[in-house]
What does this fold into?
Amino acid sequence: MEPIRTDLAVERTAAAPSLPGVTQETRGNAFSVTEIRIKNDVCGAPIGKPAGRYVTLETPAISRSSANYQEMAEELAAELGKFLPQEGCVFLAGLGNRAITPDALGPRVASKVLATRHLRTALTAEELTYLPELRPVCVLAGGVLGQTGMESAELIEAVCKQIRPAAVVAVDALACAELSRLGTTIQMSDSGISPGSGVANHRAELSRRTLGVPVIALGVPTVVDLHTAVQGIYGKSVPKDRPNMMVTPRDIDRLIDHAGDLLACALNMALHDGMTFAQAEGLG
It folds into this structure.
């Protein structure tokens, strides 16, 4: 069978269990959480993943109307907090094309994350006393190569050179292999990201190696490769000469809205120590 096309480490390791240098543990309350650690690039080569930590959070549905939505947001914020530096400016990059719904997750999240880097100079000392726990955060949703003529990596690298953040959070739509994971699974990692790799549209890499600062990748799968889906359902490979395409759910608008809102809410809590769920949700 041909290799499955997926951005999710948990799906890669399922196809190749018990690899040396690859460990896995589970936990979670509102989510089923799986943490995979890959010791080095050599250990990750058989599953096509670089060294790093990959945390996957799974739930039957992501919805603001869920009875445990607050618990989901708080648990996601806690997991994100383990990746973020304790202090310093964080640069959030919303990757993707806001005009194409399955690719609009990054811009959706970026529009709802609180940007605060400018407040130290924009507000008076008295006004700042009411905002003591807001860390400097800057946000950019720079579009895609076809819209700007510039690689996302070029824009983000230029911004990093100017503002010198302590870390970059890159939010992007992902591809998965199992249909049940569409819009219901969240992955975060410290290994960086190559935008578009899950849909065979490889763009320049965003990582500590290319940007000089830690890069936390955060995303939700919104598309599945048709050949991969058929292989998963029927257990048979599709001939390579057959047309292929990326498939997305018909309710993708709703999935993007709910997933984007949850990620933004959790990010606001994780970035700003002391921010409550009610405060973070109110920002959306």
About this structure: The chain has one domain: 9-276. Residues 9-276 form a domain with the Rossmann fold fold (CATH 3.40.50.1450). Residues 252-271 form the longest helix (20 residues). The chain has a mean pLDDT of 91.
